[in-house]
């Protein structure tokens, strides 16, 4: 028993050692319709035979045997290369098991076993039919699709059955088009093609969802104003039945999962908050099932909703502003009609007749003429009239508003709300009257407004907004308005707060400046204000802020001399810069405010008398990196030196010295004439100072070889600028001048200019530089051009047009796969070796529709023909063109990327590697321009068999009769002549043979 166990263990160990030697090849490559190549270690096992099996019952049915040819690698003796051909065997490559034979490279020992899973060829999927989300039969097309035991196809370990499994064990099985009974699902799933090899998988996408019809039910609250959730139902197919995988989008609004009511393959119900819809329009609805979207769209109408309306005067009528939701069409609905409006027209008159007709507004029995609208506001012009609680109707592009409880009444001003910004009061409401005619009442007293100081009452936005300045001594005042028609509004009480503003900016060196105080409570009028300045511009909650507290120099309540009744207090501001956040305290009133130090200003700049490469600039408020700022602590704000940023010639410059009124910096060669801009602690100079530098020219060079259409030249120097020099170029041969319009300043040392001087080859062309029209004698550059290259070719087609007098030429081409080509051109090409006919419709410049028929002219090796070649760096004249070593005569330059020529017939077979590529039967096209050549394997002849068929099909009856007469005429004349000549030749030969004998006999007779 022990011996048996040891024997079994030894056998398993031996088999495992053999198995481990060949199952891990160094490399393996599968090629469709070609070879399979495996590279192994020369001392390890290598394959001699693969047998593909299909199991029928308990027997193995060997369907395909692949024999391997193995040889040592000629360049690496440690490797063995084995190949087997699968040409013509692709249709047999399916089965449930591979069985392999192997031999050891070290001792010749053989071994047979199952082929390891990791050596199976990876499946190649070409296409497939999409399954229904309910589940359906699909077809998967490709190569290496069916390998492995049992039924290996699955989705997330759920088996997917082949529908043609009964054909699998026969030769009728189509292994390239396998049909599957696909389960229910949606979106894109991972389809595993072998249960033993997880990596053998592909993505399968289910059919796109399709909407057939939809319904929507709107719901309103009890006041019929605010919309509540609406219920929408969609019917169709392929919706999926998993709510977590279904997304519904209305316009740009994605429906949340918790709003979904039910989801099934053919029906979806969900809630939608229609108040989110901003415009009156038919809104598209789309569905995404598992990430797969609908291809069609359905639309639901969302109409306008009214929430409020202002009043207008009874006697004159006026502008009515309706507030609500969806009071405007989306821009796409009206862009086509408004695009033709004159750009000089005002916004209120820019509407076309078609657009204005899309808005119908009626108040009571009066039509309100549409003016303009936004999503929440619609403005129209209502005639004079009377009435109270009149109904409002809005129809936008045929979609009407829902029933509303909002009504209209003529002539009543209403203050609805207000905003306070400092001492500026803004009232919101309706029927506010007119600017400077409507009065503001403060605590029942009409506000007196000195118009010459700009303190006026303004009525804006069609009487819906009124603004005015509240005097600084009016704390928590009662406000109402009185319109020109003596209608007085309701009264509202303002809640004022302490407001402080800076009306002048201190210098960076520090100075005394005032602050204006508004709305100081009476209990705090005798308090001395103090301010706390925060250095880092943050609020006072930041404990790390550098702060300084300053008490006002004004020790008692000042007399107000300002028209706005504000109080002015003086403060000694310390050295600093930028915008500062401050906290102001007066008695028990505290408010946050801010002020800004004065912006930097440059008066003038000049070069230093000591060093001409140093520029000195003078002005004010530059800051000072050398002084101690009172606003910073020793442990904080270490970056104060970087508070002053000076920009010149698009560069941030470093200063040699800097103080509040002067700074110096070193000039660089890359500088050029430009503005000097200064920013101190985030505050920019209000005006920039221009520094002019004289340009210094050094040299000109080519950026790279020119294309045949031209190229770039670089101008090198110091302080270069296109403002003070105007470069241009004049080139020999063409003698054209190329202006500075195509020049671009890179920096102060480089200017890049496009010179469209066409040429080719290693020409003797030189280009001279002109500055401001004056030739720079020593500034010339010799021009060299790139060699030509080819990308693809086309054969010409004949074109027949109807209703036009022109004849066009279209092309059919073959792409070049030359990896050395670095440039591409926008040319769509297709491969074709047969004559095709296509009919298209097109419109010429006179808008005449025409029908065009294209008939391709093939090129045969025995006949040649016209060829159109695409590439680059072509030039006129084209010196020569050869295709596969055959001349293409009469080359014609079309443009820098196209040429044509006439290919001569070929009477020889071209097989040299220099002229043809055996892999794809492509021939080398060589183009010579200006002594330089370039080309590639791009040309392919048409099949000669097609030529013979076309010659037969294209010949007419008259030609056939002529050919027949010619074929009979030649034999009738030549054959008799041949027989006569042959007969005479035979007689002459016989006579010549007999003549010696005759002569000898005669001599014998004479002797006797």
What does this structure look like?
This protein is mostly beta strands and 1008 residues long. The strands form 17 sheets. Strands 65, 66, 67, 68, 69, 70, 71, 72, 73, 74 and 75 form an 11-stranded antiparallel β-sheet that branches. A 7-stranded antiparallel β-sheet has the order 26-27-30-29-28-31-32, with no helix packed on it. A hairpin with an 8-residue loop joins strand 26 and strand 27. Helix content is 9%, strand content 43%. It contains 5 helices and 75 strands. The N and C termini lie far apart (121 Å).
Which key phrases capture this entry?
disordered C terminus; mainly beta; seven-stranded antiparallel β-sheet; 1008 residues; single chain; 5 helices; eleven-stranded antiparallel β-sheet
């Amino acid at each position: 028993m022990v011996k048996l166990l040891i024997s079994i263990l030894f056998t398993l160990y031996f088999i495992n050692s053999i198995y481990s030697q060949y199952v891990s090849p160094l490399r393996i490559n599968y090629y469709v319709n070609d070879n399979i190549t495996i590279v192994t270690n020369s001392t390890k096992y290598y394959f001699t035979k693969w047998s593909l099996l299909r199991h029928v019952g308990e027997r193995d049915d060997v369907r395909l045997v692949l024999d391997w040819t193995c040889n040592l690698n000629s360049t690496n003796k440690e490797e063995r290369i084995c190949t087997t051909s699968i040409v013509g065997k692709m249709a047999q490559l399916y089965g449930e098991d591979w069985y392999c034979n192997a031999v050891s490279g070290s001792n010749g020992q053989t071994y047979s076993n199952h082929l390891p899973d990791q050596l199976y060829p990876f499946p190649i999927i070409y296409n497939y039919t999409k399954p229904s989300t309910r589940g359906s039969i699909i077809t998967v097309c490709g190569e290496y699709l069916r390998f492995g035991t049992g039924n290996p196809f699955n989705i997330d370990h759920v088996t997917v059955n082949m529908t043609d499994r009964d054909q699998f064990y026969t030769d009728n099985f189509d292994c390239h088009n396998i049909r599957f009974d696909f389960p229910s699902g949606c979106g894109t799933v991972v389809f595993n093609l072998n249960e033993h090899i997880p990596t053998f998988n592909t993505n399968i996408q289910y059919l796109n969802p399709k909407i057939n019809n939809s319904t929507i039910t709107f719901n309103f609250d009890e006041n019929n104003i605010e919309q509540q959730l609406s219920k929408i139902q969609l019917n169709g197919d392929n919706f999926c039945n998993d709510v977590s995988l279904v997304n519904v989008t209305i316009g740009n609004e994605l429906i949340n999962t918790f709003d979904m009511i039910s989801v099934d393959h053919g029906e979806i119900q969900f809630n939608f908050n229609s108040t989110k819809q901003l415009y009156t329009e038919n809104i598209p609805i789309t569905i995404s099932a598992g990430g797969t979207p609908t291809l069609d769209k359905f639309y639901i109408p969302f109409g306008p909703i009214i929430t409020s309306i202002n009043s207008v005067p009874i006697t004159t009528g006026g502008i009515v502003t309706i507030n609500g939701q969806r009071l405007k069409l989306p821009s796409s609905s009206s862009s086509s009609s408004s695009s033709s409006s004159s750009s000089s027209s005002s916004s209120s008159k820019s509407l076309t007749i078609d657009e204005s007709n899309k808005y119908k507004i009626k108040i009571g029995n009066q039509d309100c003429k549409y003016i303009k609208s936004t999503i929440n506001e619609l403005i129209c012009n209502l005639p004079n009239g009377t009435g109270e609680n009149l109904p409002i109707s809005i129809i936008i592009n045929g979609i009407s508003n829902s029933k509303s409880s909002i009504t209209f009444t003529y002539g009543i001003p209403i203050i609805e709300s207000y905003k306070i910004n400092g001492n500026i009061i803004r009232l919101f409401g309706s029927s506010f009257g007119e600017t400077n005619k409507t009065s503001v009442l403060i605590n029942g007293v009409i506000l007196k407004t000195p118009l010459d100081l700009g303190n006026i009452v303004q009525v804006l936005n069609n009487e819906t907004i009124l603004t005015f300045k509240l005097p600084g001594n009016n704390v928590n005042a009662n406000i109402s308005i009185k319109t020109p028609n003596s209608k007085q509004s309701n009264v509202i009480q303002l809640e004022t707060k302490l407001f402080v503003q800076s009306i002048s900016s201190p210098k960076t060196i520090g100075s005394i400046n005032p602050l204006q105080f508004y709305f100081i409570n009476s209990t705090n009028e005798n308090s001395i204000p103090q301010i706390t300045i925060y250095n880092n511009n943050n609020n006072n909650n930041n404990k790390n802020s550098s702060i300084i507290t300053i008490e006002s120099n004004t020790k008692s309540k000042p007399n107000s001399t300002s028209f706005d009744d504000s109080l002015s207090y003086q403060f000694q501001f310390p050295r600093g810069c930028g915008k500062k956040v401050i906290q102001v305290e007066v008695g028990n009133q505290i408010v946050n405010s801010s002020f800004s130090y004065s912006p930097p200003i440059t008066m003038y700049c000049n070069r230093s008398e000591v060093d001409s490469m140093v520029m000195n600039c003078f002005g004010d408020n530059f800051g000072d990196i050398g002084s101690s700022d009172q606003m910073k602590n020793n442990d904080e704000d270490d970056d104060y030196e970087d508070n002053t940023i000076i920009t010149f010639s698009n560069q941030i410059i470093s200063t040699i010295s800097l103080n509040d009124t002067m700074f110096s910096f070193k000039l660089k060669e890359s500088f050029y004439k430009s503005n000097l801009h200064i920013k101190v602690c985030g505050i920019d100079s209000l005006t920039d100072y221009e520094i002019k530098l004289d340009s210094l020219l050094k040299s000109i060079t080519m950026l790279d070889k020119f294309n045949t259409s031209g190229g770039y030249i670089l101008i090198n120097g110091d302080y270069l600028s296109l403002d003070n020099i105007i470069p241009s170029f004049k080139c020999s041969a063409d003698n054209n001048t190329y202006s500075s319009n195509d020049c671009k300043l890179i920096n102060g040392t480089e200017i890049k200019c496009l010179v469209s001087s066409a040429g080719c080859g290693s020409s003797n062309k030189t280009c001279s530089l002109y500055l401001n029209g004056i030739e720079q004698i020593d500034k010339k550059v010799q021009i060299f051009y790139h060699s030509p290259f080819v990308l693809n070719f086309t054969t010409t087609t004949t074109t027949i047009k109807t209703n036009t007098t022109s004849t066009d030429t279209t092309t059919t081409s073959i792409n070049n796969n030359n990896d050395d080509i670095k440039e591409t051109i926008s040319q769509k090409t297709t491969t074709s070796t047969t004559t095709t006919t296509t009919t298209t419709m097109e419109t010429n410049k006179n808008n005449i529709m025409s029908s065009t028929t294209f008939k391709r002219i093939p090129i045969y090796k025995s006949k040649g023909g016209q060829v159109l070649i695409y590439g680059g760096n072509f030039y006129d004249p084209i010196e020569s063109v050869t295709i596969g070593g055959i001349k293409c005569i009469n080359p014609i330059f079309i443009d820098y990327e196209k040429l044509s020529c006439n290919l001569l017939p070929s009477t020889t077979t071209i097989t040299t590697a220099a002229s043809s590529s055996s892999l794809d039967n492509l021939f080398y096209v060589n183009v010579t321009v200006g002594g330089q050549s370039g080309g590639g394997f791009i040309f392919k002849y048409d099949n000669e068999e097609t030529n013979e068929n076309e010659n037969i099909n294209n010949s007419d009856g008259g030609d056939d009769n002529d050919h027949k007469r010619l074929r009979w005429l030649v034999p009738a004349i030549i054959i008799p002549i041949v027989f006569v000549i042959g007969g005479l030749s035979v007689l002459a030969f016989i006579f010549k043979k007999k003549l010696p004998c005759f002569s000898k006999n005669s001599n014998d007779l004479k002797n006797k």
